[in-house]
Amino acid sequence: MSSIPHDRVPGHAVDHGHAHDDHAHHPGGIMRWITTTNHKDIGTLYLWFSFIMFIAGGCLALTIRTELFHPGLQILDPEFFNSLTTLHGLIMIFGAIMPAAVGFANWQVPLMIGAPDMAFARMNNWSFWLLPFAAALLFGSFFVPGGAAAGGWTLYAPLSVQAGMGMDLTIFAVHIMGASSIMGSINIITTILNLRAPGMTMMKMPLFVWTWLITAYLLIAVMPVLAGAVTMLLTDRHFGTSFFNAAGGGDPVMFQHIFWFFGHPEVYIMILPSFGIVSTILPAFSRKPLFGYASMVYATSSIAILSFIVWAHHMFTVGMPAAGQLFFMYATMLIAVPTGVKVFNWVATMWKGSMTFETPMLFAIGFIFLFTMGGFTGLVLAITPVDIQLQDTYYVVAHFHYVLVAGSLFAFFGGVYYWLPKWCGRMYDERLGEWHFWLSMIFFNVTFFPMHFLGLAGMPRRVPDYATQFTDWNIVATIGAYGFGLSQLLFFYIVLTCIRSGPPAPAKPWEGADTLEWTLPSPLPYHTFETPPVVK
Amino acid sequence: MMRRGRKADTMKSVVARTRAAEDRALRSASLCIALVLISIAIVFFLGAILAQYSGAPTVGIGVVGSAILGFLVIAMGRNVRK
Question: What distances in angstroms separate CA A325 from CA A310, A331, B58, one per listed residue?
């Protein structure tokens, strides 16, 4: 069952058209992937790209954790350590999580609304192929004089104004990734608004489509602001301007305001598509319609709108009037209301459902459990006096990893397991999938839960060395990180064996699934819904 | 027989013309949406930079923030009604 209410879109009422399924006119080999305009191919490219970036960013994280295994400097010099934390953040956010979400959108949005493809198929191809060049710039920055950017993923001025050539490459990479995101968003919004199947009104759309529509609007609004900020940074560095240079009359704090005006909505850009995936999986395995569909739509919209008025909670220690602190504190707490509505609705969806616990469902439940914990620590950090104590400590690191790893990433794993049988026409190994979930769940908590203790005890983030009283929990966190990293190799193995030699999947392997894609055969034909289905 | 064939041909061409017209309308509607979205992106990009020239950053941020909120409310409100 999906986010579409059952009484509105019964499976038998869908007249799907795929009369031309047999003719898959597309080039073979590498040219297929370079020149493709097919949304499924491009979705696949996005997902593989994000997985490669996830592994690369994960390797940087493991290097960081190796250095932190013991106090004192072990294997890295401090400057390089800072480069690793910076690149780890940038790669995971712009290279792994966002492209993965766009990959899901490419695969699923047209299928879920009964569209034959994305509205601008060629631009879709271009949006993807910009990304490898941006990634090359980011990784290439390690090899230029001065090394990669080392000012943190937030690229704060004035440090970023003074940094070496690696910062220029990072700025260009951010520009390119921003352009890719904006083009992708335009495509998604246009597809959803113009290419819905007859009868598919806005309030009949699956919740995944809704969350992506709202995410795309967020992207259109905030990515240009980031692009503007890094453009000013670039002109400060090379063209004699003083936007953020205090010596020339500029204001470095202004960079922080502009950055977080982008940065906080960015958090929701990364999490809203995950909300959509979880809202699709839970009803399917609870065999019940999603509880409170309309309230979920309004809650998602409310979260998006509120995300624009809370940015300065990242800057409580910078200095602002008491009224400003109070405003941003209460506004941040307000976001807990629509988020609470969503968590309540997910739990209510499962309540008295005929639940089964296949791998996608395990990841969805893991998501709710851990994301809620991350949300609660976010509420703790919203309280100004507490935040002033915990600013830039490992408590913050624990908080955002609970939101982004256990939140976004777990939902993406669940989404891959849920739709993989439809995408490739083969079933994955359920037993190994469950192993993947439990290993990820355990090692994730072993890695990040101790960071709460470290942060509360005062261990600062972004340091390669630390006081000896923090040693024990750092050892535990490093062991957990290696366990979590190795668990993801199991995910790679499961996906690979599924694609190559998994048993054939039926058209609808999940009894409770009822969105439009499940009316199509497995594997999906190369072209789908060339004749629009009629949704009654 | 000949008449029936001609009639069928005419029907086919009418259907083809209607489809082509529908495709053109859809394409122009898509382009229209894309242009509106691109222009919004450009306004925000230039707005963030030009706000710095105005000398009062809070005014700039306030204007851009209000524009975003207004845009979101209007865009979502319009589409929810559809």
Answer: 10, 10, 15
pLDDT(A398) > 80? yes
pLDDT class for A30, splitting at 50, 70, 90? confident
**For range A6-20, the mean pLDDT:** 41
Chain A within 8 Å of B41 (Cβ-Cβ)? Answer: yes
Residues in chain B, total: 82
Q: How far is CA A110 from CA A73, A127, A290, A355, in A?
A: 51, 17, 21, 28
Q: B65 vs A261: CB contact, 8 Å cut-off?
A: yes
Tell me which chain B residue has its CA closest to the CA of residue A191.
Answer: B30
Question: What does the CA dihedral A25, A28, A34, A40 come to, rounded to 10 degrees?
Answer: 60
Cα diameter, chain A: 69
**Confidence (pTM):** 0.90
Q: Which of B35, B43, B45 should one mutate to test binding to chain A, selecting the residue with the greatest count of A CBs within 10 A?
A: B45
Question: Phi and psi dihedrals of B20, rounded to 5?
Answer: -60, -40
- Per-residue burial over A466-484, b = 16 or more CB atoms within 10 Å of its CB, e = otherwise: beeebeebbebbbebbbbb
With b for 16 or more beta-carbon neighbours within 10 A and e for fewer, the A101-133 pattern comes to bbbbbbbbbbbbbbbbbbbbbebbbebbbbbee
Q: Which of A101, A383, A130 is nearest to A267 (CA)?
A: A101
Quick: pLDDT tens for A64-116.
999 999 999 989 999 999 999 999 999 999 999 999 999 999 999 999 999 99
Whose structure tokens read 């995300």? A307
Task: Supply the mean pLDDT for chain A.
Answer: 91
Q: Mutate which of A180, A194, A232, A318 to disrupt the B interface (most B C-beta within 10 Å)? A: A194
Q: How far apart are CA A9 and CA A2, in angstroms?
A: 10
pLDDT attached to residue A4:
39
For residue B73, CA distances in Å to A219, B50, B64 come to 15, 24, 14
Of the candidates B38, B48, B57, the beta carbon closest to that of A225 is on B48
Predicted confidence (pLDDT) per residue in A245-289, tens digit: 888 888 899 899 999 999 999 999 999 999 999 999 999 999 999
Within a 10 A sphere around the Cβ of A499, how many other Cβ atoms? 15
Residues A328, A343: Cα–Cα separation, whole Å: 23
pLDDT top residue among B67 and A344: A344
**Which residues in chain B have Cβ-Cβ distances shorter than 8 Å to A228?**
44-49
The interaxial angle of helices A359-382 and A410-424, nearest 10 deg, is 150
CB-CB contact of A486 with A408 (8 Å): no
Residue A266 bears catalytic tag:
yes
* Alpha helices, DSSP H, located in A391-470: 394-403, 410-424, 430-456
